Amino acid sequence: MKRIFSWLGVFLIISSFLIISAIKADVNFDFTQMWAYRVRFYQGFVLTVQISFFAMILSLLLGTLVVLARKSRWMIIRDLASSYVEIIRGTPLLVQIIFFYYIIGTAWGLSNRFIAGVIILSVFEGAYISEIIRGGVNSIESKQLEIARSIGLSRLKMFRLILLPQLIIRIIPAIAGQFASVIKDSSLLSTIAIIELMQVTKEITATNYSTYYTSYIVLAVLYLMLTFPVSMLSRGLERSNRYEI
Amino acid sequence: MKFEFSNLTVRFGSQVVLDQLSETIECKALAIIGPSGGGKSTLLRVLGGLLPADEGKFALNDLWVENNESQLNEYRKMIGFVFQSHGLFPHLSALKNITLPLIHTFGMNKQEAEEKAMNLMKKFGLEDSSHKFPIQLSGGQQQRIAIIRAIAIEPKLLLLDEPTSALDPELAFDVLEMLKQLVESGVELVIVTHHLGFASNACDTVMYMDEFGIGEFGKTEEILKSPKTERLQRFISKILSI
Q1: Do B50 and A154 count as a contact with CB atoms less than 8 A apart?
Q2: Which helix or strand (DSSP H or E) is residue B218 part of?
Q3: B74 near B156, Cβ under 8 Å?
Q4: Does residue B11 form part of some domain?
Q5: What is the pLDDT along chain B (242 residues), one digit of tens a residue?
C-alpha cells in the first residue's frame, strides 16, 4: 500500500512538473488529433518491436562471439575483436548507420532496409554487450574454476554448471539496460528512412506541424511501454536468481 | 596411503617453489607444517592434481600421475580437496554444493545423491543448513560443508589446505573436531595446518617445509617433541608462543 502511494506521488510530481513547464512555455497539447494517426503509430511501433527483437538476439550472439574471440589463442583474432569494440564504442551510432548503409551496404548489395537496420544496430550494441559479458566473466574468481576442476568437472560442465549460471545473474541488469538502449537507439534508423516509430513521428509532424509536441509525447510513451517491461523483467529475474544478500 | 615424489619441481616465473623434491611417504594422516612461503600449499595443489609440476612426477598408492589433463582429471576424481576459504559455489545451496560432484562427476541419480548428502549433513549436525546458500552460513559451517562435499565422493585421499586459517578459534575447533572424527573413522588425509595440537592429536606423520624444502619428516611424536633442526625448533617455539 505504501508502495502504491509512493508511485502515485512520483507520478504526480513528474506530471505536474511537465504540465507547469508546458503552460509556462505556452505549449498547447491536443491529443485528439493523434487518433487519426493511430494506424501509422501502430505500424511504426510494430516495426520498432521487430527491429529491436532481432537486434537484441543478434547483438547477444555477436557480443558472446566477441568475448570468445578476445580469449582466442590467435593474436590476430584477439586484436580484431578488441579493435571492433574500440571502433564501435568510440564512434557515434549515427555515423555508423550512414557509413554501413550507404558505403558497406551499397558495396555488398544490401538494399533491404529492415535487414540492414537490424545488422547495423546489432553490430553497435554487440560491442557494448561483449564488454558487459567480459566484465561478468572476469568478476567470477578464477578460484571457482579451480574448485570445479578439483571436483573433476569436465570443461563443458564447468561452463554449464558453474560459470554460466553465475554469469547470467551478474550480467542481467546491465544486459537489460543495454536492451532498453537497443529499443531507444533503433530510433536513429529513421536516418536511413526505415519507417519505425521515430520516422513515423517525423513524417506526421512534417505534414501537420500542430501535432509536433503531442506526437513526440506519444512517441515517448510508446518507447516507455517497450523499455519499462524490459527493466521490470530484469528486476524480476535478478530477484528470483539472487543468491547473494 | 603411499606417496612417492620423484624430482618434483614447481616454478612460478623465475622463483623455484618446489626444488627437486624426492620422498616416499607412507602414513594414514599427514600434517604439513611450516612458515608461509615454504611451498606447503603448492605441494598440496600438485598432490591434488590442480597444479602440474614443471619437472618430476609423483605417485599415489603406486599410481604414477603424468602431466596430461585427461589423466589429471581422472586422478582428481579420486581426491577430495578442501580449500582455505570460499571453497563453495556461491550460487548453489549447501545441499547442491554437495550433490554436484556426486551427480555430475560420478553419475549418481539426484535422489540417491541428496539422500547421501543429507545423511552426512545429519551426521555432522548441519541438516538445518541444507538449503542455505554459502553467504548465509558461518565460515565454520562453510568449511564443514566443503569437507562433506569432499568426503561424499568417498575419495581415496582427502587433501586440506589450511582449512581453519580464516576462522576464529571456536569455529576452527568445530572443523578440527570433525576432521578428527574422520581420521578416527579411517579417512586418510593430508592437511596443511598451523594447528600443532591437531597435528599431534590426529596425524600420525608430520612434514616440516620451509623455503629450503622439506626440513624434517617422520612420526608426529618424534618430529614435534624432539625436532632435530634449528629451523623446526624455532618454528615450533614461535607457534607455541602465540
Answers
A1: no
A2: strand B213-219
A3: no
A4: yes
A5: 898 988 889 999 888 888 888 889 999 999 999 998 889 999 999 999 999 889 998 999 988 888 788 888 889 999 999 999 889 999 999 999 999 999 999 999 999 999 999 999 999 999 999 999 999 999 999 999 999 999 999 999 999 999 988 888 888 888 888 898 889 888 999 999 988 888 988 899 999 998 888 888 899 988 888 888 888 888 888 887 76
How many domains does chain B fold into? 1
Among residues A16, A5, A2, A37, the alpha carbon closest in space to that of A212 is found at A37
* Residue B236 belongs to domain with CATH number: 3.40.50.300
- For B121, the grid coordinates are 549433513
State whether residue A149 sits within 8 Å of chain B by CB.
yes
Question: Are residues A149 and B76, on separate chains, in Cβ contact within 8 Å?
Answer: yes
**Residue B144 domain-assigned?**
no
ipTM computed for the complex: 0.86
Annotation: CATH topology of A37-240: MetI-like fold (1.10.3720)
Q: How far is A73 from chain B (nearest CA, A)?
A: 18
Cα separation, B47 vs B209, whole angstroms: 15
